[in-house]
Amino acid sequence: VQLQESGPGLVKPSQTLSLTCTVSGTSITTGQYFWRWLRQPPGKGLEWIGSIASSGITVYKPSLKSRTNIFRDTANNRFALQMSSATPEDTAIYFCARDVVPGGLDFEVRGQGTLVTVSS
Question: Which three-class secondary structure state does DSSP give residue 68?
Fold first, then answer.
């Protein structure tokens, strides 16, 4: 199983941060898995953002829920993250991952990560 993040590396404040995770080696709709988004700001620890289950159910970190949307494109076997009203505090390396539970910082497999900088 391989995951690969993609998306703009620079986002302006107040705009929407959008990333995609393309999965290969398995289908995102099979099994009892949660496909996750996490991030790590510079000099800080890893943070779970939210997940979408193989069933399509979504779960979000409460403090981010109001401006976060995770959805999937089953035809292309990928899932995506949108975070509205971006601020410089959203600057981080963003990772997509897979695990058997919805939240937490452990994961079975993850992508290499992509740096997103929020700046004007």
Answer: strand
